[in-house]
Design brief:
The chain has 78 residues and is of the alpha+beta class. Helix content is 28%, strand content 38%. It contains 1 helix and 4 strands, in the order E-E-E-E-H. It has one helix at residues 56-77; strands at residues 3-11, 19-26, 36-42, 50-55. The protein has a 4-stranded antiparallel sheet. It is flat. The N and C termini lie far apart (48 Å).
């Protein structure tokens, strides 16, 4: 049975009420499937409208790409 455990809630930049909700989901796709990190976006701060599931095995690669993109964006705006 799938279980969702909230890890963190962050403000969504550029919105008044928006939140980024980061959670762990156990058995997301059925019995004995591996946990994933869920990143949800709630524009009103409550109801998740968009969601991505990232397997823990891919998390480091995703973080690396996001950090690179963030640095490039900061350099463009400097």
């Amino acid at each position: 049975m799938s279980t969702t455990t909230e890890i963190a809630t962050l403000q969504l930049s550029g919105t008044k009420k928006g939140k980024i909700i980061i959670s762990n989901i156990t058995e997301p796709y059925g019995k004995e499937t591996s946990d994933v990190v869920s990143i949800g976006i709630a524009l009103n701060g409550k109801d998740i409208e968009w969601k991505s599931h990232i397997p823990y095995g891919s998390l480091d690669d995703v973080i690396e790409v996001l950090q690179k993109v963030s640095q490039e964006k900061k350099a463009q705006n400097a």
